[in-house]
Amino acid sequence: MTIETSQKLSLRALARSMMIQSSALAGCAGETVELFCEHGQIKRFADGEILATRGYEVQSLIFVIEGSIEIGMFTVQGKRFIARYVAPGQLLGVIPIIDGGSAIHDVQAHGEIAALLIPRKTFSEAIASDPGLAQALLRLLCTRSRARYDDAAANAIAPVRVRVARTLLSLLPAYGVQRGNTVRIELRLSQEEFAALVGVSRQCVNRQMSEFRRMGVISTSYSRIEVVDYTALQNLSSLDLWAE
What we know:
- With 244 residues, this protein is an alpha+beta fold.
- 48% of the residues lie in helices and 25% in strands.
- The longest helix is centred in the middle third of the chain and has 27 residues, at 131-157.
- It starts with a helix and ends in an 8-residue tail after the last helix.
């Protein structure tokens, strides 16, 4: 057995364990997990490598095993919009796989990643035979839709400080690690990437982050962010209480 084969077997076992525990697949049959692991392709991607391109056909459902995936949109003029980062244990590409349409976003690796690529045919067989999978995906789509609606409202009516606070909070469930009295966001983001995630200019974000540091809400160093005062950050993120 080659080292590469051994590594893929290890990743496949890890993927199986993660799928069983994943909230995205909660309630689906054990046979479905086995089907995905048996027919899915384990693949590694280098930093910046493209997994899907907006407007083009999607052949596989993506289950993230290691690393993070960035989804967004890139224009020919060089403008960049980042919708979110997808962490290990999450599914990506559900909508185009279900409706047969093209990719909604540009999808690329953020750092080195490993993923299980589940073929469209395998997915179709599973969803036809497993009602639990269909229910799990409905819950997943509802959860994501609620988040997108809230984001749309924030982008339309809220000041930059609310949008920055909401973005920081959105990263905590997947990437937050408790360090004493603070929570460190383990996802490394450049100033440009964080600004693209918030959806405003780097200068606007930097001014607001400086203000949050002055208030004692966060601290930053080497592309890492730590939340020092979680309650204050929550208060700053409220769409109901903000005022210019």
